[in-house]
Write a structure and sequence with these properties.
- The complex is a heterotrimer.
- By secondary structure, chain A is an alpha/beta fold.
- Chain A contains eleven helices and 15 strands.
- Chain A has two domains: about 5-215, Rossmann fold (3-Layer(aba) Sandwich); about 225-310, no CATH class.
- Helices cover about 35% and strands about 30% of the residues of chain A.
- In chain A, the strands form three sheets. A six-stranded mixed beta sheet of chain A has the order 7-8-9-4-10-11, with helices on both faces. In chain A, strands 1, 2, 3, 5 and 6 form a five-stranded antiparallel beta sheet that branches.
- The longest helix of chain A has 16 residues, at about 165-180.
- Chain A starts with a strand and ends with a helix.
- Chain B is an all-alpha fold.
- Helices cover about 85% and strands about 0% of the residues of chain B.
- Chain B contains ten helices and no strands.
- The longest helix of chain B has about 35 residues, at about 100-135.
- Chain C is mainly α.
- Chain C has two domains: about 1-80, Arc Repressor Mutant, subunit A (Orthogonal Bundle), CATH 1.10.10.10; about 85-140, no CATH class.
- Chain C is built from five helices and three strands, in the order H-E-H-H-E-E-H-H.
- Chain C has helices at about 15-25, 40-45, 50-60, 85-105, 110-139, and strands at about 35, 65-70, 75.
- The longest helix of chain C is centred in the C-terminal third of the chain and has 29 residues, at about 110-140.
- The two termini of chain C are about 25 Å apart.
- Chains in contact: A-B, A-C.
């Protein structure tokens, strides 16, 4: 666990009787960019808030950079840079005053980095925070976090209000100065394209549950979308098939790996294989998250409603 | 750092409080020292040195100053840690690497520090003017007035600070604190007036310290000073207990 | 050197980098001993994770396309004439299989599949020829 930037096991969070996070087990290696993906309200922010000690865990365990969540919170915070979801700082302080306030908390803070990033982001340093545009507010939050030179950078929706040029500048800094220096980036987002650009690892969360955690390259090399047509095609998820969608006699499968074996099996059963195609993050995400309702907990036994759809 | 930030964010209120306090002290001290208390004014006798000191400290510092420092405490308390919750900056603050109790106590002490400065300047100005007019200086009277004002202000400040944390809102905290303070001053006044039951009263406390400062009648009211100091400290302690368990 | 990574495609970014570098070498746009940018530099230029670039470089090195000198700098390798033909074929076989499988699935004629590969090889040679012409004109 020491070798992991973030580790959780069976993490659970209840808000009164609403289950926000459900038995979440994450493993984020050090030195990578990790994309934590999910829809709004999927439990991303709750997970981060627990890791940072902003809210208590209902159950489970966690460690950040080898320090135990809930017990060694100050040690975690000292080594972690964080940009939260709301991006609100003290309204009557200027960006310059905010950097002066923040730097003293971190021994690893770099004034050079701060000067460089404020130039790159073109932040008006002497205007009070409340008078800044949404984009400049986000940039100011990023400036404070990045200048910290922390071992772990946790960004919750970091591209809110940023124009494409600023997003590009952020990605460059993350790639060159953070991951390039062996530090870890954990980005929570529903903006898939930014994450897909730099992520080494992805974790997909929905309704508090982790649906997938894998290396993005592996996902792209082994995941295949298989479209087949025929009667009596399997309609439930099983082993390597993560999701099934059916329209008429056509069925589409998201296959985790060994797509050629799966295809051969289907062919042997008389199906006509229409297409086997590689999948982008967007498609994987949509397949995983959207289909969750139509085909839940579909292991061998259940007869899902889709069969009747097929019959009609 | 957090101390600096608290100072930076409340310096406008602090300066306003200071200016009003200084204005009141410089405006009222000279006539009161010259003509004494209203009773003496009626008789037309000019007050002695001791009388000039006692009436000035009681009326200017005890009366006007006491009211003002209570108001300063309310205003500064509502700008304390509780305001971070409704301004939604608390998520940022609590992810800086310090224990929660650090924020509670540093934030609290910044306000007490400001109140002490206001009291110090006010008491210093009044006693300075009195020394100039009478050629005398009463060290213990000045010290007692300063302690009384600071602790009295700290009580109203700590109460507001705590209520703002409880309600997670500076403004709501201010409202509740004003209500509580009003009752806390009114009730002991009424019980004493109608039933001769003497409850500890913040108002009396500040009056007592200043009264003691005015005329050395009895021993210095250490017990009340300690009592009210404990009250002032109990609020941030309670706030700490709350904040350490708070979900942000 | 200009490399483009389309992160939205289903092809892993490290594979895209590998393919492009191989293509540049095959087309003669990169020559032996040409220096390659550092992993961090290329990653920063492409806005992809340095781990991705590192993986591409590792694979390319293993395939004999790049070489890293002590000190960490990376150069385009001499195309080793010593590489055994059987080894070359071993490396290419998975791609051939992929083409065969996909072609079969799309119900293409075996001849059509072979022709497709033929066309790609021709296209590369055409590039070579054009480059040669340019060279001659330049002289």
């Amino acid at each position: 666990m020491k070798s992991l930037a973030i580790w959780t096991e069976g993490l659970v969070k209840f808000y009164s009787d609403v289950k926000a996070v459900d038995e979440l087990s994450l493993s984020v290696p050090r030195g990578v960019a990790y994309g934590f993906l999910g829809r709004n309200g999927a439990g991303k922010t709750s997970t981060i808030r627990m890791l940072l000690g902003l809210t208590k865990l209902t159950a489970g365990n966690g460690a950040v950079l080898g320090y135990k969540v809930g017990r060694e919170q100050v040690a975690i915070l000292e080594r972690t840079a964080f940009v939260g979801e709301n991006k609100i700082l003290y309204g009557n302080l200027t960006a310059r005053e905010l950097t002066r306030f923040t730097r003293g908390f971190y021994p690893s803070w770099s004034d050079d980095a701060c000067a460089k990033y404020s130039r790159l982001f073109e932040i008006p340093m002497d205007r009070s925070f409340s008078k800044l545009s949404q984009g400049n507010r986000t940039k100011t939050c990023l400036l404070l976090a990045l200048s910290q030179r922390a071992d772990l950078v946790i960004l919750d929706e970091p591209t809110v209000g940023l124009d494409p040029v600023a997003v590009d500048a952020l990605l460059r800094i993350l790639v060159e100065d953070v991951i390039g220096a062996g530090r870890t980036v954990f980005i929570s987002s529903h903006n898939l394209s930014d994450v897909e650009q730099i992520a080494d690892w992805i974790g997909v969360i929905d309704q508090g549950k982790l649906l997938l955690e894998a290396k993005l390259d592996d996902v792209k090399s082994t995941f295949r979308l298989v479209t087949a047509s025929g009667n009596g095609l399997p309609q439930t998820r099983f082993a390597d098939v993560l999701s099934v969608t059916s329209v008429g006699k056509f069925s589409r499968y998201l296959v985790k790996h060994d797509a050629d074996i799966f295809v051969a099996k289907l062919s042997r059963e008389g199906a006509i294989i229409a297409e086997v195609s590689p999948v982008g993050l967007r498609e994987i995400f949509l397949e995983l998250v959207q289909k969750e309702d139509t085909c839940t907990s579909g292991n061998a036994g259940g007869k899902p409603a889709l069969n009747s759809l097929l019959g009609s | 750092m957090y101390f600096w930030k608290c100072w930076r964010e409340t310096r406008a209120q602090f300066i306003a409080g200071l200016v009003v306090f200084v204005a009141v002290c410089s405006f009222f001290t000279i006539p009161v020292a010259k003509f004494g208390s209203p009773e003496m004014m009626k008789t037309g006798v000019s007050p002695s040195v001791a009388q000039a000191w006692s009436s000035a400290i009681r009326m200017v510092l005890g009366g006007w100053g006491g009211t003002l420092i209570l108001i300063c405490g309310l205003v500064l308390g509502s700008a304390g840690l509780g305001k971070e919750f409704d301004k939604q900056t608390v998520g940022f603050l609590f992810t800086r690497p310090r224990r929660r109790r650090y924020w509670v106590w540093v934030g609290w002490s910044a306000g007490v520090f400001e109140l002490a400065i206001i009291a110090l300047v006010g008491v210093g100005l009044t006693s300075g003017l009195l020394t100039f007019l009478t050629g005398h200086f009463y060290t213990w009277r000045v010290l007692a007035a300063f302690l009384g004002l600071t602790v009295g202000g700290a009580v109203s400040y700590s109460l507001t600070y705590f209520m703002a944390v409880v309600t997670r809102s500076g403004l709501q905290g201010l409202g509740y604190a004003m209500g509580i303070l009003f009752v806390a001053i009114l009730v002991p006044g009424m019980t004493a007036h109608f039933w001769r039951i003497y409850l500890p009263s913040l108002w009396d406390f500040m009056d007592t310290t200043c009264e003691w400062a005015a005329a050395v009648v009895s021993s210095f009211p250490f017990s009340v000073l300690i009592l009210w100091s404990i009250v002032a400290l109990a609020f941030p302690l309670a706030a700490q207990a709350l904040v350490e368990r708070a979900d942000v | 050197m200009l490399i483009h990574v389309n992160s939205a495609s289903g092809v892993p970014a490290y594979l895209q980098i590998e393919t492009q570098v191989k293509h540049y070498v095959a087309a003669g746009a990169l020559e032996p001993d040409d220096p390659m940018p550092s992993v961090r530099k290329l990653a920063a230029d492409l806005r992809v994770s340095p781990n991705t670039v590192a993986r591409a470089y590792q694979d390319l090195e293993r395939d004999g396309v790049l070489r890293t000198v002590p000190g960490g700098r990376t150069y385009v390798a001499d195309i080793s004439p010593g590489l055994l033909k059987s080894e070359k074929i071993r490396r290419l076989r998975p791609y051939a299989r992929q083409i065969a499988v996909e072609g079969k699935q799309l119900r293409l004629d075996p001849l059509e599949i072979i022709q497709l590969v033929r066309q790609e090889v021709d296209a590369l040679e055409e590039v070579d020829e054009k480059l040669g012409n340019l060279d001659r004109r330049a002289r």
